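Today's session is about reading a structure prediction critically. Students often jump straight to the picture, but the first step is always the sequence itself: look for stretches that repeat, for charged clusters, for runs of hydrophobic residues. Only then move on to the predicted structure, which in these notes is written as discrete structure tokens rather than atom positions. Here is the chain we will use throughout the hour.
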Amino acid sequence: MEEFLYGVLLTGPQGLTLPGKARLQIDFSAGADSMEALAAAPLQRPLIEVSLVPVTGTVVIPLLSGLAPIPVSGVCYLGLFGPLWFVVSGGALFTPLVMQFNFSANNTIIGGVSWRRGQPLGRAFGMLGTRLALPS
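Below is the predicted structure for this chain, in token form.
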């Protein structure tokens, strides 16, 4: 299991920018068996295979959720050449936080966050994250 820490900036449609952090644990070994088999198998026809890898962690966005971390869980869609897309959600009743993102570069993630605590439609934010060093 690998652990990653990202400093994230959320930007709303009216320009509201909120800082936060996402700490994620990704168990890449969960999809390794099928990926190794795919890489070793001769291809007779075009084939696309994606494995689902579990993701857990916490997200803190102080101006939305306060200082308490929101536990999240979800999946990473893992293709032959690495992670394709992450979808995690969490929080209290009715899952107020949904986060979708992918890697833009080695240390950068991009995506979006939906927050809907107490609101039927919620708020949507664009997200940009930069990988941070894990505290020792």
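Discussion point for the tutorial: Residues 32-40 form the longest helix (9 residues).
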